[in-house]
Write a structure and sequence with these properties.
The structure holds two protein chains of two kinds.
Chain A (H helix, E strand, L loop, with lengths): L6 E11 L2 E12 L3 E5 L6 H8 L7 E6 L2 E3 L4 H6 L2 E4 L11 H6 L6 E2 L2 E2 L1 H14 L15 H14 L4 E5 L7 H14 L4 E6 L2 H7 L2 E6 L2 E7 L5 H9 L17 E11 L5 E11 L3 E5 L6 H8 L5 E8 L2 E2 L5 H6 L2 E4 L3 H5 L6 H5 L10 E2 L2 E2 L1 H14 L16 H14 L4 E5 L7 H16 L3 E6 L2 H7 L2 E6 L2 E7 L5 H8 L6
Helix pairs in contact in A: 4-5, 14-15
Chain B lengths: L1 H30 L7 H20 L6 H28 L4 H23 L11 E3 L9 H5 L1 E3 H19 L1 H11 L1 H6 L4 H27 L11 H11 L4 H23 L6 H18 L22
Antiparallel strand pairs in B: 1-2
Helix pairs in contact in B: 1-6, 1-9, 1-10, 1-11, 2-3, 2-4, 2-9, 2-10, 3-4, 3-9, 6-7, 7-9, 10-11, 10-12, 11-12
The chains are: A alpha/beta, B mainly alpha.
């Protein structure tokens, strides 16, 4: 183990991908015991920059200096040796191996010529997890662990491999508010021994943990300075380039009839465990019900069960008075259900199809678009041109493959298709996940607009701000059943956070 | 009745060896994330090279055992080379694995047949390798015939099962193989060379497929023909799924399939009036049925199977 990292600098880093300038002459520096927050919207180039630092990508120009002397990392191996460790946003864990085996992958000391000394790795894991009070079970398989636990495994892994400089890429994106607080407290303790680069676009966290902040936009550093000298609002404005005021649901709804009524729904997960455990929920016409919860508590299974994509074991789903449990997806669509699915690239669109084909996916056999089994090219083109304009889909033309669009534009294509079909109800699952603020604003406006038309909306999200901004009522889901339903006015971040963590209110 | 059963069971072990070796090799490929449908072609090349060496020395007559061993070694080398070639196509050039595999299969079977006609000509038999009766154990009634009275290569192949298990689960290399087949991005971020590991496992898999082919020509059929492999390479690929990428379960699958095959030949030889076309189908139908009922176990499967890895590909 070598000495401390007193200073790490990246100077004039430039990296080009085909058609994209991902890093444009970026320079940053981090001193001993400092926490640098690297903030910026999606696609601003934060992750690319860190992948360069870890040797995963090679920069086209620029250099990296540690304690004043230049280093070249040809791969992550070299970065580890220099004492750098990164926790990626998508956890870099092998699902069908144990915690110990995952860490052994990088722990070369335990690699004997013909034998892997797993016991050596295991004792190192136990030692590190005790030292930093990061509790992990070294013998558990990764697929058995929750997201929060997997993140602890990532931290333990990085520390086991001797990291003295931590890079955390959006570490809180999958955590509950409580888990987030715990993580931040933990990281603050670690700064006695470590320096940290903390990537985030959640400004509360940035304010809570960092000494310095660097703001990236379109691959450039647009600002860097001390965190304490600037308010969250300032940082947000510099991040987006303009100030954005997300729309809020302010007008009271004069509650309509209940249109979707779910009673005692029981549904199994992919692993044949109970995913929804006698879940009941009512949604009225013209209201947005936000379903808050940490992902993995049954949200996916609920949206799939309503849309006929997952078998309902027992219980009922009554839609405008009609029982639709175990209908086929086609039947559910014909009942007037609109659906914005969780995985926009794989469930929401057919990526290889053009935008115009994706627009009519659900209506290809509708007389409006086909006659005698032949598609009506002209009508489809007109319809698509109209939607592209109305929903501001930024694309070369309607023949463009939908999969080549950015996340925000793909989501607009899906939204356009679902809303233009004039649904009687809409289920939106994580509709803004991973989108930048401009796209979020647009989608929020659209959701509020269809609510004003008297359509009920079930909004599934893990962003508390989104839920609190848009919902008339907020239901909290935990382990497959509804913990509690709160009116908009009764809900606070703290109260929702407690409920999401499974604590029952009396 | 007992004799028939003893006959059937005592054929099981030697007849399962080719399948076993090929599917263990294929298991290493798939654990590393590459499925090699060319297994059949590699086996054909292995079978040809394996019989060519003792044949060209002895001309079909008796040869010292060392030439049979040489035959096996040459088959393994050719197999490893073809595995390497498959790696160039699928790992470095990232060709679709299914198509590349079918290409390799046709290349291997075609080349082996052509070379055979050129260097050997017609059907020629070789003496092969003798059975070894293990002292004492082979004298045990029933069990002796079933387990302890086979050729040396069969014993070695079965001894290789625990070795394969050890390699996969207890060595650093096995750890790397499992990681690159399931989450190559994670493996890469831990400083593991994904391409190199895939190449290595393709070469090991190829060598084992070559040995499997040589076993068929040297130890089992004691001859070579165009139809010697007759789909065993493809069955081997199916057995890997069947056995959930685990050596012991793959062994179980290979034995089950071989048992079904010996069962159907026994039925025919006993003159039971049963349409032989249906009897011949039996083992293959069994594979399809069992495959359709085995659970899709996502917890052990190498989830990146079939996907080329490109570090700078942004997803």
């Amino acid at each position: 183990m070598e000495g401390k990292i007193r200073e790490l600098r990246m100077e004039h880093i430039t990296k080009r991908f085909p058609g994209v300038l991902a890093s444009d002459d970026i320079s940053i520096s981090v001193g001993e015991g400092e926490v640098l927050a690297l903030v910026g919207e999606n696609g601003a180039g934060k992750t690319t920059l860190m992948n360069i630092l870890m040797g995963l990508y090679q920069p086209d120009e620029g250099r990296i200096l540690i304690n004043g002397s230049e280093v070249r990392f040809r791969g992550p191996e070299d970065a580890f040796k220099a004492g750098l460790g990164m926790v990626h946003q998508q956890y870099m864990l092998v699902q069908n191996m144990t915690v110990t085996e995952n860490i052994a992958l990088g722990y070369k000391k335990a690699w004997k010529p013909m034998r892997l000394s797993l016991s050596e790795v295991r004792s190192r894991v136990v030692e590190i997890s005790e030292k930093y009070s990061l509790s992990v079970n070294p013998d558990a398989y990764i697929w058995q662990l929750s997201v929060g636990e997997q993140q602890r495994v990532e931290l333990v892994k990085t520390l086991c491999l001797g990291a003295r400089f931590l890079i955390l890429d959006e570490p809180t994106s999958a955590l509950t508010p409580q888990e987030t607080d715990e993580l931040i407290a933990l990281l603050k303790n670690m700064t006695d021994e470590l320096s940290i680069i903390f990537i985030s676009h959640k400004l509360q966290e940035v304010k809570a943990i960092s000494n310095k902040v660097a703001i990236l936009r379109h691959g450039k550093v647009v600002f860097s300075g001390n965190t304490d000298d600037h308010s969250s609002q300032d940082i947000a404005a510099m991040m987006t380039g303009h100030s954005i005021e997300l729309p809020k649901n302010l007008d009271k709804n004069d509650s309509g009839d209940t249109v979707l009524s779910i009673r005692d729904l029981v549904v199994m997960s992919d692993r044949k465990t109970v995913a929804l455990d006698h879940l009941s929920l009512d949604i009225k016409a013209g209201e947005i019900v936000g379903l808050a919860g940490v992902s993995g508590n049954g949200q996916r299974e609920l949206s799939e069960a309503i849309n006929g994509l997952r078998r309902v074991e027992s219980g009922s789903i009554s839609f405008f008075g009609k029982e639709i449990a175990n209908f086929t997806p086609r039947q559910v669509i014909d009942e007037g259900m609109g659906y914005i699915p969780e995985e926009r690239n794989t469930e929401g669109i057919v990526p290889a199809f053009s935008i115009r084909e994706n627009f009519i996916l659900k209506d290809a056999s509708n007389p409006e678009f086909s006659s005698r089994s032949i598609l009506k090219k002209k009508d489809i083109d007109d319809y698509s041109e109209k939607l592209v304009k109305e929903f501001d889909v930024r694309c070369p033309d309607i023949q463009t493959a939908a999969g080549s669009l950015s996340g925000g534009n793909i989501q607009k294509v899906i939204l356009a298709r679902e809303i233009e079909r004039k649904p009687r109800f809409l289920i939106a699952v994580y509709p803004t996940r991973g989108l930048d603020l401009g796209a979020v604003e647009f989608i929020h406006q659209q959701l509020l607009a269809i609510r004003r038309e008297g359509i009920g909306v079930l909004l599934i999200s893990e962003e508390l701000d989104e839920i609190m901004d848009l919902s008339d009522r907020i239901a909290v889901i935990y382990k497959g059943s509804i913990q509690k339903v709160l009116d908009h006015d009764e809900a606070t971040r703290a109260r929702l956070g407690v409920l999401m963590a499974g604590v029952k209110e009396e | 009745m007992i004799t028939i059963l003893t006959n059937m069971l005592s054929m099981c072990i030697p007849f399962s060896v080719a399948l076993l070796l090929a599917s263990i090799g294929e298991m290493f490929n798939q654990r590393a994330g590459v499925f090699n449908l060319g297994c059949e072609g590699i086996m054909a090349m292995g079978a040809f090279i394996g019989m060519l060496i003792p044949f060209s020395v002895g001309g079909g007559g008796p040869v010292p055992q060392v030439y049979n061993v040489l035959g096996f070694l040459a088959a393994a080398a050719v197999g490893a080379f073809l595995g390497l070639f498959f790696g160039v196509v699928t790992v470095t050039f990232r060709a679709p694995q299914g198509i590349a595999g079918i290409g390799l299969q046709m290349f291997g079977v075609g080349t082996a047949g052509t070379l055979f006609r050129h260097f050997v000509g017609g059907t020629q038999s070789i003496p092969g390798i003798p059975d070894i009766d293990i002292p004492l154990l082979s004298k045990i009634p029933f069990l002796g015939d079933v387990f302890f009275s086979h050729n040396g290569a069969a014993y070695l192949a079965y001894l290789f099962i625990p070795v394969a298990w050890y390699i996969l689960f207890k060595t650093p290399w096995g750890l790397k193989v499992r990681a690159v087949g399931t989450n190559p991005r994670a493996a890469d971020s831990m400083g593991i060379n994904v391409s190199r590991t895939r190449y290595e496992s393709l070469m090991l898999g190829g060598a084992l497929a070559g040995l499997a082919g040589a076993y068929l020509s040297i130890a089992q059929a004691k001859m070579f023909s165009d139809t010697l492999i007759s789909g065993r390479g493809f069955i081997a690929v199916a057995l890997v799924y069947f056995g959930h990428w685990h050596p012991l379960q793959i062994m179980g699958g290979a034995l089950l399939f071989t048992f079904a095959q010996t069962f159907q030949t026994q039925i025919q030889s006993m003159g039971i009036s049963f349409p032989y076309e249906l009897a011949v189908m039996l083992p293959y139908v069994l594979v399809i049925v069992v495959l359709s009922f085995t659970s899709r176990n996502q917890t052990t499967a190498p989830t990146s199977l079939g996907k080329p890895f490109n570090r700078e590909m942004r997803t």
